[in-house]
Amino acid sequence: MHITMIGAGYVGLVSGACLAEFGHDVVVLDKDPAKIEALLGGRIPIYEPGLEKLVAENVRDGRLDFTTDLNHAVSRAEAVFLAVGTPTRRGDGHADLSYVFAAAEEVARAVTGPVVLVTKSTVPVGTGAKLREIVRRIRPELAIEIASNPEFLREGNAIGDFMRPDRVVIGVDSERAEAVLKRLYRPLFLIETPVVATAVETAEMIKYAANAFLAMKITFINEVADLCEKVGADVHDVARGIGLDGRIGRKFLHPGPGYGGSCFPKDTLAFARTGQDYGSPMRLVETTVAVNETRKEAMAGRIIAACGGSVAAKTIAVLGLTFKPETDDMRDAPSLTVMPLLAAAGAQLAAFDPAGTEVARPLLPAGVRYAENPLDAASGADALVLLTEWNEFRALSADRLKTAMRGDVVLDLRNVWDPAVMREAGFRYHSIGRP
Ligand code: UDX
């Protein structure tokens, strides 16, 4: 099939490359000539394991192309995917749909035959209906069908998530659109991936409900972890003890400094706003948003308390800046809340991240010393804080860290180290929800 992907961002690139890998002919369009030029030269503007290789192979085999020319991009398309950004709108927390609507208008003007216009971007319930109005107004003579096909890709694992998903959600309002999308995902049905074929509004709702539920689950275990600390219980055993109940499930019960990233913060906020708009408040989601925000701030307070109530003129080393491992994405990363608060309290900061330093640098307080490796970051520090659970931090030698540091305080906000080992090495070791 011939497919166009509008937007060479994270979702567009991963989805475009994976659909090409399925055997389709995919053209990915972006307005940014520098981005397209880089992609044509084999350079991938984001860090995602496996993506560079997948793109290179599919370009080589002639199934994947990049362009800034919309007419060229859609000339043979049977399906056009919208994978443009839907950031949080300034001021009110709604999703900003201006890029989605602008792209839909341009596509409607450019297409030359019947086509299915599919939203991949996360869009609030009702967006599909608005898109339908737009394309009908611009091209009343053409059969342009609207569909919603939300993605559930985790950064760092996106290719695996696309190739072996738990399910494919297809929101359609015509048999033709359903047939086109089912043909597109045929390779997944051969491996018996369940498909949820439903109305467009329902598909839009599924995406928000899924992300809000996962964000709620994380926030729940975070609060349970705090209570565990007070009563002397171990949150990991609690998570396992409840997660083995199939109705609850074991995933997304790992406590930490609060969720971040490009999806959960933005989507929970937008979902809560939709609820308010329709007079059907999503109170659990609203509370999740608020609890997660205060949690990131509370992490700074926790660090200051562990340092004896003041970090003035103390050196704090931070390991991990990105919102999670295996990405250079800094969007809503806990480091963006925690580090400015520590700097404002007078701390000197050193930091190391395996992939995110360049993205992080302009976003973090001036004066942070960016180290070459974890031991270099810890060198001379009074306290060490682990914010992101990159694998390379797991195997660090506690003794070597201790020797490098001046002080003895460690805050492991992802529970990657063994408390007994850390105490043995002479650390005053703090983790989340463990006695
Ligand atoms: C998420 C969803 O998983 C994906 O389906 C959706 O399409 C986009 O948003 P992503 O943001 O890439 O993906 O990362 P994810 O692995 O889900 O983690 C999100 C945040 O939750 C991270 O900050 C992570 O550290 C945190 N998290 C996750 C926890 O704190 N505990 C957990 O148990 C799981």
UniProtKB/TrEMBL annotation:
Q: Which reactions appear under catalytic activity for this entry?
A: UDP-alpha-D-glucose + 2 NAD(+) + H2O = UDP-alpha-D-glucuronate + 2 NADH + 3 H(+)
Binding positions (substrate): F152, L153, R154, E155, K207, F252, L253, H254, P255, G256, G260, K324
Keyword Transcription regulation included in the entry's annotation? no
Question: Which UniProt keywords are listed?
Answer: NAD, Oxidoreductase
Per the UniProt record, one Pfam family is UDPG_MGDP_dh
Q: Does the keyword NAD belong to this entry?
A: yes
Q: Which residues are involved in binding NAD(+)?
A: D30, K35, T86, T122, E155, K266, R331
Q: Which GO terms describe its molecular function?
A: NAD binding; UDP-glucose 6-dehydrogenase activity
Q: In which pathway does it act?
A: Nucleotide-sugar biosynthesis; UDP-alpha-D-glucuronate biosynthesis; UDP-alpha-D-glucuronate from UDP-alpha-D-glucose: step 1/1
- According to its UniProt record, this protein's enzyme class is oxidoreductase
Query: What Enzyme Commission number does this protein have?
Result: 1.1.1.22
Active-site residues, record numbering mapped to chain: C263 (nucleophile)
Residue ranges annotated for the UDP-glucose/GDP-mannose dehydrogenase C-terminal domain, each copy included: 317-419
Which processes are annotated in GO (biological process)? polysaccharide biosynthetic process
The family line of this record is:
Belongs to the UDP-glucose/GDP-mannose dehydrogenase family.
- Listed name of the protein: UDP-glucose 6-dehydrogenase
Q: From which organism does this entry originate?
A: Plastoroseomonas arctica
